[in-house]
Amino acid sequence: xxxxxxxxxxxxxxxxxxxxxxxxxxxxxxxxxxxxxxxxxxxxxxxxxxxxxxxxxxxxxxxxxxxxxxxxxxxxxxxxxxxxxxxxxxxxxxxxxxxxxxxxxxxxxxxxxxxxxxxxxxxxxxxxxxxxxxxxxxxxxxxxxxxxxxxxxxxxxxxxxxxxxxxxxxxxxxxxxxxxxxxxxxxxxxxxxxxxxxxxxxxxxxxxxxxxxxxxxxxxxxxxxxxxxxxxxxxxxxxxxxxxxxxxxxxxxxxxxxxxxxxxxxxxxxxxxxx
Length: 275
Known about the structure:
Blueprint: H1 2-28, E1 45-50, H2 57-70, E2 76-82, E3 92-94, E4 99-101, E5 104-106, H3 110-113, E6 122-124, H4 126-129, H5 133-136, H6 139-145, E7 150-156, H7 162-175, E8 181-186, H8 195-210, H9 214-218, H10 228-241, E9 245-253, E10 267-274
Family: Belongs to the MEMO1 family.
Pfam family, one: Memo
InterPro entries: MEMO1_fam
């Protein structure tokens, strides 16, 4: 009987620590009064935005650590990344090859990809996507916090058309009806600006994102975000899914990691979207 009480006590303490940790992360990062924070247990986190710059690895780690506290059911991550080199035979390139990390292999969800392969603007390109760091940077974190999860990597060049973007977003909306799938936009925001200018550009980008202003986002260059194309598809999928409850986990720039570096900064967001 005494052992039973000890087990119950241990379970209770563990549950309390987990709840406190999640509450602390949400509360401490509740920096934007315009954002609807989603710390309650009823909100299902379906998607998110996180950086892919190695310098911001602590932000990326916190993103996945906190996501793991919120939703342990995730089985597949669809990664929307820039195609930084803007290369490949199709506007969107992907991979069907499992990827190795220091923690082990991250498998591709070939079954889920089967629901996207009918799009003529999406093509398998192993040679070019393997060097895309917008995908590669996230794989060790996925393996660390979701060791059995699979991925579907999608890297977007500037060649994708708006009609194609909306068509793909509609397909992603249907896929996201499965609560075991998480849509990740791997994006860095303001690039190579002074800190003051980057902050102004970030405010402009945030306003366009919250208003789902696709025309405005389409006009952006790297001063705002490194892939307006991926951002448009992500936001359109969110709008169609009704995932408009937003959690801002963090908003920083490279100046937060490099003391005194207030020129040529890159900015980063960690956001979740839920319904």
